[in-house]
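Data availability (excerpt). The following record was deposited with the supplementary files.
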Amino acid sequence: MTSNQQTLAEPAAPAAPPIKRGRRPFGLYMILILLTLQALVGVFATFFYGLGLLLLPGETWAELNITVIDLLEPITLLVITLVVVIGLWRYRAWGWYGMMLLLAYWMATDAIAYFTASPEYASMLLNVVLVFYLNQREVRDLFETSVADEVRA
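Predicted structure:
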């Protein structure tokens, strides 16, 4: 390479500093603990609810008017929440994206409830606060990973 080519060449961009993952922010701890508790309560509630329905006579089933489809949504959300919590605990990018999708679902159901005259203001406020918190730069940086990090894990 000649000296003329060296002056025209651009310097290499500095490498991004490694992300320190030693300590989670307090807010992220609270989100993880609350989601974990929600998932555990959901597991126990589903178990005891299912056990109670199994022990009830058939006439009670007819009076409650419960179908398998009615139980499918909460059980699916429970499983998804458990997977997302595991991803968040392990600093996985897919855990962060999964949490954003869960929040989008919950905000959509809150909007539907609002327009059907049964608003849940506390849930609406909590979901908006969670979205803003999880989109802060310091929190997003915890979950950004390169392809090499994902391969090593």
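Summary of structural features: Residues 25-145 form one domain.
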